[in-house]
Design a protein that fits this description.
The protein is mostly beta strands. Helix content is about 10%, strand content about 35%. The strands form seven sheets. It has a ten-stranded parallel sheet with strand order 1-2-5-8-11-14-17-20-23-25. A nine-stranded parallel sheet has the order 3-6-9-12-15-18-21-24-26, with no helix packed on it. A seven-stranded parallel sheet has the order 4-7-10-13-16-19-22. β27 and β28 form a beta hairpin.
Length: about 425
C-alpha cells in the first residue's frame, strides 16, 4: 500500500476512534514525495524533524514508500546496519555531523544495497559490511564519504559517480565496476586486492589517487576501459595497471610509479617512491575523508597546467586548485596549500655574526611541515627557520649584525588553511 493512502486510512480511523495521537506514528507526517526524514542512532520519533528523529531503518522504510526522499543522519555510530534501498533516495549527513554506518560484519550482509532508483550517499562513513555499497539501481552517487574496512568497498552494475571520497582497507577489491563510473578528487588505497576493477563499462578518473593496493591499482577487464587524467597511481602490487596496452587512455598529466599504465608524454612514468613522496592516509586539515599528502619535491607537485582542463576547482578536501601561492595544479586527490602567516615580534632581534659562520637564534614556530624562510633587513637575504623554530643564517654572511623587524612575513607548506604559529 502506498504511504499516502496509508495516511488517509489512519486519519479516518483516528477520527472514528478518537485517536488524537495517531500523527505520532512514524511516517504518518510524511506523505509528500521528496520529503525530508530525520534519523539518529537512538531515534524513536516519527522522522519529521531532528528533534523527532526515528531510527535509520525506519527512515529508509519510509523513503522506500516514496520516491526522492532525503534521509538526514545525525552524527555518531549506527550499528548492525543492513539497508535495502528500493526507491530513489538520498542518505546525507546532517550539517557538521559524521555518521558512521557500521554493518553486520564481513561475509554477512552488505551495509547498503541499492536495489532500485537513484541513490545518493553523502558525508557518511560506511564500514564492516560484506560490501560497503552495492549499486543495482538506476544510478549511484557517492560524495564526501569514507568507505573503509569492508569485504569489498563498492560494487556497482549501475552508472556511478564518486567524488571527494576515500575507499580503503577492503579485504578484497576497493571498487568493482560493471558499468560506467566517473571518479574525481577521490582516493582508493590500501585494499587487499585491486584498487579499481573495471569488469564492464568505462572508468574516467580525474584528480584522484590510487595507491598501495595489494592487487593492481586499476585493472580493466576484457570489456572494460578507462581514461586517466591528473591522477596519481603509485605503490600498487604487482603493478599499477593491468592490461594497459589498449584499454587505458591517458588524458594527460598523470604520475605513476612504474611503466605499466602506458602513459603519454605529458605524464610521468616510473617515478620512484621518494620522487612521489606520498604520505600516509591522514586528516590533513579536513574533517571529511582522509587523504594522502605530497610535498613540494613531489613529481606530482604543480604538474597539471590550469590550461589543460584537468585542473579541477578543488581537491578532495574541498580546498582550491591551484593551491594558494601556486600557478599550476598537483596530480592526485590532494592539493598542497600555502598559507601566509605573520609572526608578531615585540622588537628588533639582533645577533652578532663572525664572518664565515652561521647565526642561530630562536623563534617560536609550530605546525610547520618543513623549513620556513623569511627575509632579514640586515643583511638582506634569506634566513631559514626549521620546523622546530631554529633560525639559521647563511654561513657566508659578512661580519656584523643580523637584525629583523616585526612583523616577519613567512610562508610554509601546510595541509589546510589557517594554521597558526
Amino acid at each position: 500500500m502506498r504511504r499516502g493512502l496509508r495516511v488517509v486510512v489512519l486519519a479516518v480511523l483516528a477520527g472514528a476512534m478518537g485517536m488524537a495521537g495517531i500523527a505520532g506514528v512514524p511516517g504518518a507526517a510524511h506523505a509528500a514525495t521528496g520529503a525530508t526524514l530525520y534519523a539518529s542512532p537512538a531515534g524513536t520519533g516519527d522522522c519529521s524533524s531532528a528533534a523527532a528523529a526515528c531510527s535509520l531503518q525506519a527512515a529508509v522504510t519510509e523513503a522506500n514508500g516514496d520516491t526522492g526522499d532525503t534521509v538526514v543522519l545525525a552524527g555518531s555510530t549506527y550499528t548492525s546496519v543492513a539497508l535495502a534501498l528500493n526507491a530513489s533516495m538520498s542518505l546525507v549527513a546532517a550539517p557538521g555531523a559524521d555518521p558512521v554506518l557500521y554493518g553486520e560484519g564481513r561475509q554477512t550482509n552488505n551495509v547498503i544495497d541499492v536495489n532500485a532508483g537513484l541513490a545518493t550517499i553523502s558525508g557518511l562513513t560506511v564500514t564492516n559490511g560484506d560490501t560497503g555499497i552495492v549499486g543495482n539501481g538506476s544510478g549511484l552517487t557517492v560524495t564526501a564519504s569514507t568507505i573503509e574496512g569492508n569485504g569489498e568497498g563498492i560494487s556497482t552494475s549501475s552508472p556511478a559517480t564518486v567524488t571527494e571520497s576515500t575507499i580503503s582497507g577492503s579485504a578484497g577489491t576497493g571498487i568493482e565496476l560493471l558499468a560506467s563510473m566517473t571518479m574525481t578528487n577521490s582516493t582508493v588505497t590500501g585494499n587487499d586486492n585491486t584498487g579499481v576493477d573495471v569488469e564492464g563499462g568505462t572508468l574516467t578518473a580525474t584528480g584522484s589517487t590510487i595507491s598501495d593496493n595489494a592487487g593492481f591499482g586499476i585493472s580493466p577487464g576484457a570489456v572494460g576501459s578507462m581514461t586517466l587524467g591528473s591522477s596519481l597511481i603509485t605503490g600498487n602490487s604487482p603493478a599499477n595497471c593491468a592490461n594497459a596496452s589498449s584499454s587505458i587512455t591517458d588524458a594527460g598529466y598523470n604520475v605513476a610509479s612504474d611503466d605499466s599504465c602506458g602513459l603519454g608524454s605529458t605524464s610521468v612514468s616510473g617515478a620512484s617512491a621518494a620522487a612521489i613522496g606520498l604520505g600516509a592516509l591522514a586528516a590533513n586539515g579536513s574533517a571529511g575523508p582522509q587523504t594522502q599528502a605530497i610535498g613540494t619535491s613531489s613529481d606530482a607537485y604543480q604538474l597539471v597546467p590550469v590550461s589543460s582542463g584537468l585542473c579541477l576547482a578543488t581537491d578532495e578536501r574541498g580546498l582550491g586548485r591551484p593551491g594558494t601561492g601556486t600557478t599550476d595544479c598537483d596530480a592526485g586527490a590532494y592539493e598542497l596549500q600555502y598559507q601566509p602567516v605573520t609572526l608578531a615580534q615585540a622588537g628588533t632581534t639582533t645577533g652578532s655574526v663572525t664572518a664565515g659562520t652561521a647565526f642561530s637564534g630562536q623563534l617560536a614556530v609550530t605546525g610547520a611541515t618543513g623549513p620556513v624562510s623569511y627575509l632579514t633587513t640586515s643583511p638582506a637575504g634569506p634566513v631559514t627557520v626549521s620546523a622546530a623554530g631554529v633560525i639559521t643564517a647563511p654561513a657566508t654572511v659578512p661580519a656584523g649584525s643580523i637584525s629583523s623587524l616585526a612583523p616577519i612575513p613567512i610562508r610554509w607548506g601546510t595541509a589546510a588553511p589557517g594554521p597558526s604559529p
